Every structure is written in C-alpha cells, then in structure tokens.
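User: I'm new to structure prediction. If I give you an amino acid sequence, what do you actually give back? Let's try with this one:
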Amino acid sequence: MSQIIPTEKTKVRRKPDRANYERETIYKILDEAFVCNVAFIADGQPYVVPTNYVRVGERLLLHGSPASRLMKTLSSGAPFCLSVTLLDGIVFSPTATGHSVNYRSVVVMGKAEPIEDPAAKLAAMRYFVEYVLRGRWATVRPPSEQELKGTMVLAVPLVEASAKVRVGFAVDDDKEYAGPAWTGVLPFKWTPGEPIRDPRGDAAIPVPANIQRYSRPQ
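Assistant: Good question. You get back a string of structure tokens that encode the predicted 3D arrangement of the chain. For your 218 residues, that looks like this:
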C-alpha cells in the first residue's frame, strides 16, 4: 500500500491539512533525519531519550546496550512513541504570535521486536554504519562476537506512523503587514563542517570524498 492508514493514535488533528500518510513522504523524512526521540514509560516515570536509527524497508532498527533503560523497556514489548523533525526554516511574521517554523516531521507509534539471530544482528549493524556513511562498512573492522553479544538490536514495524509538514510564509491577515517588521522565511539546511582528523589516525590517509562532501540522505 502506498499509504499508512492513520489510526486514532497517529491521525493528525491539529492542522490536519499538514498531515501526510504517504509511505514515500514518511520514508523520505526518516531517511534524511539522523536522530530520533523515543518516549516511553518505565516504573511509572515518563522518559524521552534521543538515539539514532536506520530504516530498512518497512521497519526501523534501533540499537544500544542491553543494560540501558531504553533498550530494556522497549524489548519488554512496552508501547512507545518515536519522532523525528527536520527544520527547514524560521517563519518571520508581522505579529508576535504569528512566528512559526517550516518543518517536516514523523511520529511512529508501536512496539519493538528484539532481533536475536547473530547473522541478522550483524546485518543490522552494517545497516547502521552504512546509514551514517555509504561505503563505510568496507573500510572499518566489523563487530566482534563479543561486541555483537553486548549490543541489543530492536526492530520497529512501520505500521502506525504519520508525517506532518509545514511550508510557506506567515498566515497573518493582510492588514497586519502595514507595520515596520521584516517578514519572510529564513531557510535552514543541515550541512557538515570541515572534517577534523583524529590525531591517533594515520595522517597519510586523505579525507574521503564522501566525507568531505557529506550530505543526507546517504
């Protein structure tokens, strides 16, 4: 199906005209973003934890230490909410309350499924590395058996998810534009800086072109 059917939990109610349930839109946002925030409840206390992820087909993969609160809670089958946001611009309005931001965001609801098979875990780790930088897996040491045992990998089926997107200028009435304030949009784009060499690395190795000209999505 080209669309993820909205549920009571994922249906956008505030500004529903900004909602998008198309898989292509949702996947594109997820593939460009780098960090998600996971909200869950443990021992009656709500938490929001930032972590990285990778989308593989119709699933998101998460990984971390089996001892972490996040991994222990999610692996137990507890429900959680995950979100990512891309900031595309600051919207300057003629009124104090009219300022806004242009953005693309995704919210995912669900339960995680632990990946136990060693081969599947190794494949997942490759996906994580390649999501950071395409082609990187071939240049680094793969995880050892001990490192794999010390890493928990969780799969999150993309069954309940929705996107929300804002574009354009302020929505104030035309009469508000008579004032002296500048109005418009200041675009934002995530761009890398100059690579900083690790002093412990081989100084003779040049910065690879895909790092020097890094971009997302990979």
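You can read the tokens as a compact description of the fold. Here is one thing that stands out. The radius of gyration is 21 Å.
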